Amino acid sequence: MTMRGIFNYLPVISILIGAVCWGLLWIPLKFFASFGLTGNLIGMTSYLIVGLVALPIVWRQRKIWRAEFNLLLLIGISFGLGNVAFNAALMQGEVVRVMLLFYLLPAWGALGGVLILKEKLSKRRYIAIALSLAGVFVIMGGTTVFSQPFSTVDILSLAAGFCFSIAVVSNKKAVQIPLASRALVPFIFCPPLAFLGNYLAPTPMPELGLSIWILLVVFAFIWLFGATVFSTYGFAKVEASRASILQVTELFVAIVTATLIGGEILGIKEYIGGALIVIATLLEAMPAELAQENKSIKST
Questions:
Q1: Is the separation of the CB atoms in 42 and 33 below 8 Å?
Q2: CB count, 10 Å around CB of 148?
Q3: How far is CA 267 from the centre of its chain?
Q4: Average of per-residue pLDDT across 188-201
Q5: Looking at residues 61-87, what average pLDDT do you find?
Q6: What does the mean pLDDT of the chain come to?
Q7: C-alpha to C-alpha distance for 298 and 40, rounded to whole angstroms
C-alpha cells in the first residue's frame, strides 16, 4: 500500500485508536481509585493539567469561534459534565454495566437532534430509540426497574451518555469553531465542574506519592489528550454514520477487557440488553441514503 493510501485511512485509524483508548479507560481509572481518588478528583488533577495548557490555545482562536461562542460553551459544559460523570461511574461501578448504560446514545442523539438541530425523526430512528430503551430496560432488570430506584452509578452512566450526545450534536451544528478548540475546550470546563461536584459531595484529596503524581500527568497528556486528539481528528474527517459504527469498538473493547482482565461476569440480561443497544446504535448510524435504498429494494 502506498503512503497516499495509508494517509487515506488515517481518519479511520484515528477513530479506532481513540475508541480503544476510551474502551480501556477503566483500567487507569480503577488504578487511581485504589489510591482514594474519585471522578471529581481526577477532573481536578489530570484534566486541570491539560486544561491549563489548552486555555491559551483556545483563547488564541477566539476571533474564529466568537460567532459561535454559545455552541462552544455548550460543547465545553456538556463534554465536561459527561467526563466527570463517566469517570465517576467507571471508578465506582461495574465496567460492563456502566458502558452498556452509557451507550443509550441512539435515544439521546435523536433527542439532541430534535432539540438542537431541529431534525425530524424517521421511522428508522424511532425503532433505534425503542431498541436502545428496551436494551436498558433489560439490563436494569426488566420489570424490577419500577420497584427499585436507580443506583448513583446507573444515573451517572445515563447522564454521561446524555451529555456526550449533546456535545456531539453541538459539534455537528458548529461550523466556525476550529478543530483545536473543539478538542481542547472540554479540558477547560471539566476542572471547575469537578470542583463543584466535589464541593457538593466532598472527598478529601488523599496523600499521594511522587510516582502517582507523575502517573497522573502521564495519564493526562498521553491517555486523555492523545485519545481526544485522535477521536476529534477522525470525527472531523469521517462521515458521522461511519464514525458512529467505528465508535462501537469502544464498547466491545471495554466489555471484553473487563471480563478477561477485570474478572467481571456477563449475565443473560447483559447479553440481551447489550445486543439490543448495539443493534440500535448500528441502525442509528446507517446513512439515510442507505436506509432509503434498502426500503426501495424491498418494495420492488
A1: no
A2: 9
A3: 24
A4: 94
A5: 92
A6: 82
A7: 51
- Backbone conformation region of residue 142, classed left if phi is above 0, alpha if psi is from -120 to 50, else beta: left
pLDDT band at 110, cuts 50/70/90? low
Measured CA to CA, the distance from residue 71 to residue 76 in angstroms comes to: 9
Helices in the chain by DSSP H: which ranges? Answer: 3-23, 26-33, 39-60, 62-65, 69-92, 95-102, 105-115, 123-139, 152-173, 179-200, 210-218, 225-237, 240-260, 268-285, 288-299
Q: Which residues of 47-78 are buried (b: 16+ CB within 10 A; e: fewer)?
A: bbbbbeebeeebeebeeebeebeebbebbbbb
- What is d(CA 198, CA 149) in angstroms, rounded to the nearest whole number? 23
CA distances to 188, 217, 222, 224 from 214, rounded to whole Å, are 21, 5, 12, 14
pLDDT at residue 155 above 60? yes
The amino acid occupying position 36 is: G
Better-scored residue on pLDDT, 66 or 251: 66
Kindly state the cell numbers that stand for 244.
Answer: 458512529
The three cell numbers of residue 101 are: 448504560
pLDDT the model gives residue 300: 43
Q: What's the pTM value of the predicted model, to 2 decimals?
A: 0.81
Contact in structure between 245 and 106 (CB atoms under 8 Å): no
DSSP 186-205: HHHHHHHHHHHHHHHS--PP
What are the distances in angstroms from CA 6 to CA 1, 3, 12, 157, 287? 7, 5, 10, 36, 25
